[in-house]
Automatic annotation (TrEMBL):
Residue intervals of the SRCR domain: 41-140
The protein's name in its UniProt record: Galectin-3-binding protein A
Keyword Signal: yes
Disulfide bridges in this chain: 65-129, 78-139, 109-119
Organism: Liparis tanakae (Tanaka's snailfish)
Organism ancestry: Eukaryota, Metazoa, Chordata, Craniata, Vertebrata
Secretion signal, residue range per the UniProt entry: 1-22
Length: 578
């Protein structure tokens, strides 16, 4: 094919492409990067889990000298970065030239610190080392132990000629428009200017002009500022505009969503948006969930924000033992503590986790913030045995004594007074969240079906016995200590099984939870029970209400997936005064 004919072919292909449907513009507010903050760490110049250790202080990234650098110190920095631990320390390896300050020298960590900068060291920048002594680390790459290893989702809206158009993009033949993609690295250059790295991507005006936000009809080039971690994905994004095909994974989904919303590529934005809830359960480190939550807040995407928050609320115990826990913002932790759908063993667990979050932050949260968070604990819901020992077992009791005393008094009153007496005091408010249970999964309040392996499976239709009887107190107030209710819990897998009980069921499997005693004598207690669907014994992916004792798959728009539909049912009893 002659050069001329080739060019003609290219233009024909491009023209065919443009005759496709025009896209509507839907623009989110622009994305802002969270800049590095004092004490942040990163690995530079290596792979995903190794590199030179750099730490941010006073507006610049600097290095760490090898005096005192050992496995204890390496564990701290790996954990700070979301890895489980360090594999080995690296000394004397050149991960590219370092030019910034040497921030840390004579470092001594216990190994339990959360941030490298909370270990003992001489002083910021006080050192007699040179960059030859910069340390590196290899972290154990146990980050994001995916339930679905390295899942890749293929988005494909391609029409004919997709592959040819992909080749046109790849060859850049006839390209008449270029995009300079720039990112600041967070480093400062010798002249004091911020270091910027970039790539240039060649494209065709005709293609890009479908999306006016590229300004392709106005000039010959644009410059796009993008966060460093998104830079490698920009080319896939532009290629998508040619081919309508792209592979998406955990590390690229957020970038692609941002680019699609920035340039008004609506279909891609919707597709990646839908992928978010699929991807949420994949990251056991919770770094993705937290990062997506922050992204949603920045872009004012309330649906995505609720989607992330709900997942974290339903899987709160795992969140609290994940690397993301101590990095949670005050605002995010507050939003979680306000929720009644927090799934936790009991309220004492919530108190302990908030105390651990506060102590983990060292002195970086103000006393007001601490009190603000602690006051969201529903003290009356704390089991009485834990209340009695709180004074001795709580790590913050002595720092916030008056607040704890006031809350304990309220809790004790709740446990010894009949609710109507409590409420006759104008100090108490019926609507007070403190008297509302969350979803408490402690044995006292819940039961699991099936009780043994194998789990229920849609594919094999295998079951363990799908019925159980369990007892709970009538209410968690001590007044009801000796009053029990017996509950009959069932999961039905066919219309036949429902019919055997004289029931009509709408979908399968379906769950039923029935009190075996008459509840009429407890007229001031109502039950707002819940059914948790727990995927592969690992994460809660759905929470259902009960209506007329039958579980209802509510009007829930936000659903997380459960591969193979391998799940267990956890029935949770939740009494509440009315
Ligand atoms: C991740 O998975 C591997 C193998 O499946 C396991 O050995 C390792 O302990 C897991 N890491 C975490 C943090 O769960
Ligand atoms: C996602 O895909 C890119 C290549 O497209 C790859 O470099 C990266 O490691 C993948 N990330 C994950 C978490 O699988
Ligand atoms: C980029 O575009 C601007 C105006 O849109 C123009 O002034 C400038 O010369 C272009 N740069 C290059 C290298 O073509
Ligand atoms: C397109 O042009 C508008 C108006 O000149 C400008 O505000 C916008 O930043 C441009 N977009 C890009 C991607 O350069
Ligand atoms: C927090 O501050 C108190 C005094 O205000 C001090 O005694 C304590 O050591 C500090 N804790 C940490 C972890 O810095
Ligand atoms: C309080 O601490 C004591 C001693 O460490 C322990 O035995 C007890 O179980 C703790 N109480 C609760 C409710 O955790
Ligand atoms: C959550 O924690 C439980 C108990 O520690 C564990 O069995 C489960 O695998 C965890 N789930 C995930 C998604 O890591
Ligand atoms: C609940 O309803 C949604 C939407 O109708 C459906 O996709 C999902 O499979 C249902 N879940 C269960 C457990 O039946």
């Amino acid at each position: 094919m002659s050069a001329h004919r080739f060019t003609v072919t290219v233009w024909l292909l491009l023209l065919l492409h443009v005759s496709g449907s025009a896209m509507k513009i839907n623009l989110f507010s622009r994305h802002r990067n969270r800049g590095p903050q004092d004490g942040d760490a990163r690995l530079f110049g290596g792979g995903a889990a190794d590199g030179r250790v750099e730490i941010y202080h006073d507006g610049a990234w600097g290095t760490v000298c090898d005096d005192g650098w050992d496995l204890a110190e390496a564990h701290v920095v790996c954990r700070q970065l979301g890895f489980t631990r360090a594999e080995s320390v690296v000394i004397g390896k050149n991960y590219g030239k370092a030019s910034g300050p040497i921030w840390l020298d004579d470092l001594k960590c216990e190994g339990t610190e959360i941030y490298l900068s909370t270990c003992a060291f001489t002083n910021w920048g006080a050192t007699d080392c040179s960059h030859k002594e910069d340390v590196g680390v290899i972290c154990e790459n146990g980050r994001a132990n995916l339930t679905n290893d390295n899942a890749v989702y293929s988005l494909d809206h391609s029409i004919s000629l997709s592959d040819e158009r992909g080749q046109i993009f790849d060859s850049a033949s006839g390209a008449d428009f270029f995009i300079s993609v720039r990112s600041v690295t967070g480093n400062t250059q010798e002249d004091g200017a911020p270091e910027v790295v970039g790539v240039t991507i060649w494209a065709h005006k005709l293609i890009l002009s479908q999306f006016p936000l590229f300004n392709a009809s106005e000039g010959s080039n644009i410059t796009v500022d993008i966060r460093l971690s998104c830079q490698p994905h920009f080319s896939s994004f532009i290629r998508y505009i040619y081919t309508r095909k792209v592979d998406v994974n955990l590390s690229s989904v957020q970038c692609l969503h941002w680019m699609a919303s920035t340039f008004g590529v609506k279909q891609l934005m919707e597709d990646t948006g839908r992928l978010f809830s699929k991807i949420l359960p994949e990251d056991a480190s919770f770094l993705t969930q937290v990062s997506l939550y922050e992204y949603a807040a920045e872009t004012q995407d309330w649906v995505l924000q609720e989607n992330c928050l709900q997942y974290m609320a339903w899987n709160y115990p795992n969140l609290t033992s994940s690397p993301a826990w101590t990095r949670l913002s005050v605002e995010l932790l507050r939003s979680l503590l306000l929720r009644s759908d927090l799934v936790v063993p009991d309220e004492y667990f919530v108190l302990q986790t908030v105390e651990s979050w506060i102590t983990g932050k060292g002195n970086s949260t103000s006393l007001e913030t601490q009190v603000g968070l602690l006051s969201l604990i529903r003290f009356p819901m704390i089991p009485a045995e834990a209340l009695y020992e709180l004074e001795y077992n709580s790590s913050l009791y002595s720092t916030h004594m008056s607040m704890y005393r006031e809350k304990l008094l309220k809790a004790f009153q709740f446990n010894v007074l009949v609710f109507s007496n409590l409420m006759s005091n104008p100090k108490f408010n019926r609507e007070d969240e403190d008297y509302r249970p969350r979803i408490y999964t402690a044995e006292l309040w819940s039961a699991i079906l099936p009780r043994q392996q194998p789990l229920y499976s849609h594919r094999t239709h295998q079951y363990d016995t799908m019925a159980t009887v369990f007892n709970t107190p009538v209410h968690n107030s001590l007044i009801f200590k000796s009053n029990k209710i017996s509950w009959d819990a069932n999961v039905f897998k066919s219309q036949q099984e429902c019919a055997n009980r004289g029931l009509r069921c709408e979908s399968f499997p379906t769950a039923r939870l029935v009190p075996q005693n008459s509840l009429s004598q407890w007229s001031n207690v109502h039950f707002r029970n819940r059914l948790l669907l727990v995927c592969q014994g690992k994460y809660v992916f759905q929470v259902q209400d009960f209506k007329n004792n039958m579980a209802v798959n509510g009007t829930q728009v936000l659903a997380y997936p459960c591969p193979d539909d391998q799940y267990t049912f956890r029935f949770v009893v939740r009494p509440k005064y009315v």
